[in-house]
Specification:
This protein is α+β, with helices and mostly antiparallel strands. Helix content is about 30%, strand content about 20%. It has a single domain (about 5-230), classed as Spore Coat Polysaccharide Biosynthesis Protein SpsA, Chain A (Alpha-Beta Complex).
Length: about 230
């Protein structure tokens, strides 16, 4: 972000990036919101305040590693658990509610958001068979040239049955390249257990874009302004 501030509290539309997502969850009537903090944790907590619960991640070891910092009784004791990355401030409460509704209606073990992206971004590819059934999700760096042509992407916005997440999270293995634990790897694990994994494809891919640079912020703020005018 080329900023001295920790990424979650870099300003976006007058608020910290992560504050937008927190407010969307509150508006969607999600009961308890947990924010996993690491670098600059005290600064983040001071800025965000006490509208959320905080969980500390001493070392950043990937998205699945972050989830593993959450106490077992919270995950296992919760019927459905959302797991979202915190740099997607365009996600709306409506999208969150639709994800939860689809997850419950289909009785899935895991459901995640996808979209058709008209631009190239380094996100995991959603791989389907000829019947359009989900068969895999492949991180970009592990994808074949043919898989890289897929434009349906996911950017780590999930909802899980709490007991399934708790039961199988420890089966996620470190990535061979960097040793990190990716939550995306829960998808093949659940599929291998013959558990249902569902997707919810949304129309506006911009909701799922993570902001990583000042240029991203400028782009996303412009997207909001244009959407407001419609």
């Amino acid at each position: 972000m080329r900023s001295a501030l920790p990424k979650p509290i870099v300003p976006f539309m007058g608020k910290p990036i992560v504050q937008h997502l927190i407010e969307s969850f509150h508006k969607a009537e999600v009961k308890d919101v947990y924010l996993i903090v690491g670098h600059g944790a005290e600064e983040v907590k001071e800025k965000i305040g006490w509208g959320v619960h905080y969980i500390y991640q001493a070392e950043q070891g990937g998205t699945a590693h972050a989830v593993k910092q959450v106490p077992d009784d919270i995950i296992n004791g919760t019927e459905n658990v959302f797991v979202f990355v915190g740099d997607s401030p365009l996600i709306t409460s409506d999208t969150i509610q639709k994800l939860e509704e689809h997850h419950i209606e289909t009785e899935a073990s895991c459901t995640f958001l996808t979209a058709i992206f008209p631009i190239d971004l380094p996100y995991a590819r959603v791989i389907r068979n000829e019947q359009k059934e989900l068969i895999a999700c492949i991180e970009e760096k592990n994808a074949t040239p043919e898989q890289l042509k897929v434009h349906e992407l996911l950017s780590s916005h999930f909802i899980f049955k709490g007991n399934d997440l708790h039961k199988y999270l420890n089966e996620v293995k470190p990535d061979k390249g960097n040793g990190e634990l990716y939550l995306t790897d829960m998808i093949p694990i659940l599929l291998s257990k013959h558990l249902k994994v569902e997707t919810l494809q949304i129309e506006d891919y911009r909701e799922l874009v993570g902001l990583n640079t000042p240029e991203d912020i400028a782009w996303a703020e412009e997207a909001i302004k244009k959407k407001t005018k419609l």
